Amino acid sequence: LECIRGTYKTFATPSQCLPCPANSTTDSTGSTLISQCKCFTGYQGDPSKDIACTGNAEMHVWNKLLFYLRI
C-alpha cells in the first residue's frame, strides 16, 4: 500500500506509514523516506535531521487547512 500525503514508510514494504513530524508534509503520496517530509510554507527546519519545523501560529492554522483540503 502507498502512503497518503503527509506520511512516509521507512521501507518500501507493507510496513505502517508514519506521519511526518509536526508542521510538515510530503509533496505527494507514496513517500518512503523521512527526507521527503518538508516544512509547511512559512516554517523553517529539517525533519530529516530531526530539526523541528517552527513558524508563527497563524501560518500553522492556514497550512493545516490547506493540507486537509488537499489544495
Topology as a string of helices (H) and strands (E): EEEEEEH
* Poorly predicted parts: none
Q: Structural class given helices, strands, pairing?
A: alpha+beta
Helix run count: 1
Helix percentage: 10-25%
Overall 3D shape: globular
Please tally the β strands and state the result.
6
The mean pLDDT is 85
N-C termini distance = 23 Å
Computed over alpha carbons, the radius of gyration is 12 Å
Strand content is: 15-25%
| Order of strands across the main sheet | 1-2
Structural description of this entry:
This protein is an alpha+beta fold. Helix content is 18%, strand content 24%. It is built from one helix and six strands. It has one helix spanning 57-69; strands at 7-8, 18-19, 24-26, 37-39, 44-46, 51-54. Strands 1-2 form a two-stranded antiparallel ribbon. A two-stranded antiparallel sheet has the order 3-4. The chain has a two-stranded antiparallel sheet with strand order 5-6. The longest helix is centred in the C-terminal third of the chain and has 13 residues, at 57-69. It is globular.
